Amino acid sequence: MPGDTFDLRKVEFVPYSSALLPRIQRAGFDCGNAELNEFLNDDVDAHSREHIAQTTLLLVEGSLAGYFSLCAGVVRLGDEEAESFLARGFPYRSMPALKIARLGVDRRFKRRRLGLLAVTVVVGIAARMQRDVGCRFLTVDAKREPEAICFWEHVGFERNEARSSLNDTISYRLDLLNPPPHGSPQSD
User: Fold this and answer.
1) What's the domain count of the chain?
2) Engineering a disulfide at 104: which of 36, 62, 149, 170 sits with its beta carbon 3.0 to 4.6 angstroms away?
């Protein structure tokens, strides 16, 4: 399948429900990251039920091609940024965010713009959310793997320097009001 093309408009976005769990577990999903695979097979149901993260499945012609999970988050501001917001009347050390808790694309569908499509959909979700809830940033804690780092930087996320990341992740963010001109989901 690598190199094959498919119409991204035919990707189906299906909200996770517990009725889908047996289908997910039979799908043989493998994004190349054991932790992301295990979440989808072992933890997605509990996270959904307890409202910790909500997951959306990406289906291509009925096959599980990927998924993303979202939860509420926050961005801690560095001193310079906090000063900039203070100058505009916002005396805050952090800003509200929507966090991409997990994003995985099955190996069969890698390098076919499915991850970019998922991020674009998440940007749309955040934009709709902004009508009802404050949400300035998108965040993600990316795995310290070259492929993950390259992907998040390509789609316009910047390292969140004010937050110290866990050893195996790097904190990234996308400013929803000031997205970068190149590489962002909106421009690809």
Assistant:
1) 1
2) 36
State the residue range of the domain holding 161.
Answer: 8-175
CA distances from 12 to 7, 55, 62, 64 (A): 11, 13, 8, 10
Determine the 3-state secondary structure of 147 from DSSP.
helix
Look at phi and psi of residue 19 and say left if phi exceeds 0, alpha if psi is from -120 to 50, else beta. Answer: alpha
DSSP-assigned beta bridge partners for residue 170? 142
Q: Please list the ranges in the chain whose pLDDT falls under 50.
A: 1-3, 182-184, 186-188
SS3 14: strand
The answer to whether residue 185 sits within a structural domain is: no
Query: Mapping DSSP to helix (H, G, I), strand (E, B) and coil, where does residue 76 land?
Result: strand
Query: Per this entry, what is the length of the chain?
Result: 188
Following CA atoms 29, 124, 186, 54 in sequence, which dihedral angle do they give, to the nearest 10 degrees?
A: -30
The structure's pTM equals 0.88
Between the alpha carbon of residue 151 and those of residues 61, 79, 105, 114, 148, the distances in Å are: 25, 28, 12, 11, 5
